[in-house]
Amino acid sequence: MRGNLVIGAVLVGLTVLAALVSFVWTPHDPTLVDAAHRLAPPGGDYLLGTDKFGRDTFSQLMVGARTTLYVGIVAVGIAALVGTPLGMVAGMTPHGWLSELIMRVNDLVFAFPALLLAVMLGAVYGAGTLTAMIAIGVATVPAFARIARAATMQVMVTDYILAARAAGRGRIAIAARHVLPNIGSMLIVQASVSFAIAILAEAALSFLGFGTRPPTPSWGRMLQEAQELLFSTPRLALWPGLAIALAVLGFNLLGDGLRDHLDPKLRRIRAER
User: Fold this and answer.
1) 147 near 87, Cβ under 8 Å?
2) How far apart are CA 214 and CA 208, in angstroms?
3) Phi and psi, residue 56, nearest 5°
4) DSSP code at position 36
5) How far apart are the first and last CA of the chain?
6) d(C-alpha 148, C-alpha 152), whole Å
7) Which of 82, 156, 201, 270 has its CA 20 to 30 A from that of 212?
8) Could you report the per-residue pLDDT of 95-144, keeping only the tens digit for each?
9) Cα–Cα distance, 62 to 48 (Å, whole number)
């Protein structure tokens, strides 16, 4: 539905806007510890109040959006750049040993959740933003590989692919000029959905201490720091939790809207109605 696309685009746009504005302006220094204004209520100089260290909550949310988008872009980029070519190779040779090998390795990677992979990498290389990005990216590769393989197999039986083969085009040329442009819409939708998953994974990793390290603000760590004051000052958990929920909702709605808009089958169904 068009409404999903619009609502998703608005929520994603607000998240991106907050992240971009945080590069040049925030109401206060999000890392400044000010004991004199510890747990200040919302209003006045502090729009959403301050945390237990006296840091401005609104400023932390703005910079936290930047951190979240950064992790999401890199993680989804890793997954798309690795998973898409592997899926296309598997889809162009569906009955060969290479396709079987790719998909079995894909299943093996799919068995390791991003959280578990991040814990393993963090134990070896140390917890941090880079570790979180790599873990989330690697864990998302199977999703892109499966989507790319299924879409490629559909494209490979079309008449224009047969014509390209008859004209003597090689596999690389066919993949670049015919397959990739025709599966691009599915990959865009998958990227939007994977971005929502990456936001949740980054927040969970930061909450557990395996994500973004202090003093860089992170929505997940804001939740972790607020849990000991959950009953006395619940607003400390409300704002980052609401930010995570709206960002995830935005990317999910954007993905659904893009799927409805880009899928020709769904467009024909709506036209017939």
Assistant:
1) yes
2) 13
3) -70, 125
4) G
5) 14
6) 6
7) 82
8) 888 889 999 999 999 888 878 888 888 878 888 888 889 999 999 999 99
9) 12
- Going by C-alpha positions, the residue among 256, 194, 253, 229 that lies closest to residue 57 is 229
Q: Write the pLDDT tens digit of every residue in 38-57.
A: 999 998 889 999 999 999 99
The conformation of residue 179, written as its DSSP 8-state character, comes to I
| Sign (positive or negative) of CA dihedral 120, 121, 126, 132 | negative
Count CB-CB contacts under 10 A for residue 251: 25
Distance CA 14, CA 11 (A): 5
- Separation of alpha carbons 180 and 161, rounded Å: 12
Q: Which two tokens stand for residue 172?
A: 């690389």
Query: What is the Cα–Cα distance from 217 to 65, expressed in whole angstroms?
Result: 9
pTM: 0.91
Residue type, 140: T
Cis bond leading into 41, ω under 30°? Answer: no
Both tokens assigned to 242: 């609401």
Q: C-alpha distances in angstroms, 103 versus 168, 187, 256, 271?
A: 28, 18, 26, 37
3-state secondary structure of 234: coil
> Mind listing the pLDDT tens digit for each residue in 252-261?
999 988 887 7
Task: Tell me the two tokens of residue 210.
Answer: 């395996």
Q: Identify which of 109, 42, 122 has the alpha carbon closest to the alpha carbon of residue 79.
A: 109
DSSP, residue by residue, 117-152: HHHHHHHHH-SSHHHHHHHHHHHHHHHHHHHHHHHH
Burial class (CB in 10 A: 0-12, 13-18, 19+), 163: exposed
Q: Could you tell me where the beta strands, DSSP code E, fall in the chain?
A: none
Q: What percent of the chain has pLDDT over 90?
A: 66
- Our measurement of the distance from residue 178's CA atom to the centroid of its chain's CA atoms, rounded to an integer in Å, reads 27
Report the 10 Å Cβ neighbour count for 100.
13
